[in-house]
Amino acid sequence: MQEFAEPFRHGWRQTAQVREVLYDGQSAFQHVQVFDTVPFGRMLVLDDACQTSVRDEYIYHEMLTHVPMMAHPAPRRVLIIGGGDGGALRRVLEYPVDKATMVEIDGDVVDVSRKLLPEIAGSAFDDPRTELLIGDGVAYLRDTTEHFDVILVDSTDPVGPAVDLFGETFYQHARRALGDNGIIVTQSGSPLVMLEELQAAEALMRRVFPIVKTYTCSIPLYPGVLWSFTAASTRLDPTQVEPRNIAGRLLANGQPTGWYTPAIHAAAFALPNFLAAALETQASYDPSALPLPLY
Ligand code: SAM
Q: According to CATH, where is 3.40.50.150 located in the chain?
């Protein structure tokens, strides 16, 4: 049986058995592949990096979306940058939002996801509240005069077109678009095999926002499984959300969740010592010590 393996990161990689290659093409931005795999079912891969799979997408998309959406008392206008598979968009639209704007640089990712991974987005792309723009999220946020309550950066890792989505200028534009009462969350990579990228993004967010909080969850699809998100805001503290408030809103919205719960929301911000120290001290780790950075 065929296999798909990501590239090694610090001598560590994971491999999936592949039943069938469903798509393999080169877009204007990246190599786009969809495999039907034994462990994860259908899986989207961009430039050899696993992005999402029909079997575990709910974990990433629930944790990327519900934490900031529940931290805001009544999010009405949401911006998603990246997210071409539509999984984050589907979760945002479970809330009584007025509008969800999604800026995805690569239209091929949307087209391929809608065709081969339809269950991830469900009907989100056809929702009248959805505004789908195919373009660079960096330029969009730089130029927009719109205000947003929540911004989700659901991007590839900080390489290629995504690099500037992790830059200080981008966060300054985000702070302008959010005002004092909004919150941004970015996927911030693996604390085990991408610790430097996480430290850099978090440090830059700290230069722009007074409140910056990293949280984690376990995503089987991603290298090392442990994954991070970093939230930033001026007034909203995502660690100070009443669990009963979350439970009530989940119930009111009729939101089924496979991973996210009020207790998970709180626990996700409890960081392992090595990670809390790495973010506190910004110590640079000897790359040969990664993964499992030595404390
Ligand atoms: N939602 C998936 C997950 O579970 O992690 C992965 C995210 S999604 C596939 C990542 C998207 O970010 C890709 O479709 C990529 O084209 C998009 N992207 C990268 N850089 C971008 C940019 N500067 N502006 C907008 N979209 C960008």
A: 57-285
CATH class of 57-285: alpha beta
Which residue spans within 65-135 are E strands per DSSP?
Answer: 77-82, 99-104, 130-134
Average pLDDT over residues 191-196: 89
Fold for domain 2-53? Spermidine Synthase; Chain: A, domain 2 (2.30.140)
Residue 9's nearest CA partner among 144, 190, 265 is 190
Ligand 1 centroid distance, CA of 106 (Å): 8
Q: How far is residue 266's CA from residue 290's CA, in Å, rounded to a whole number?
A: 27
Q: List, by residue number, the catalytic residues.
A: 154
**Residues 26 and 89 sit within 8 Å (Cβ to Cβ):** no
Residue with CA nearest ligand 1 atom 21? 162
Nearest-atom number in ligand 1 for the CA of 222 is 5
Atom in ligand 1 nearest the alpha carbon of residue 138: 23
Phi and psi dihedrals of 136, rounded to 5? -80, 120
Helices 273-281, 195-208: inter-axial angle, 10-degree rounding: 50
Over residues 217-238, the pLDDT tens digits come to 999 999 889 999 999 999 999 9
Q: What is the pLDDT of residues 112-132, one digit of tens each?
A: 999 999 999 999 999 999 999
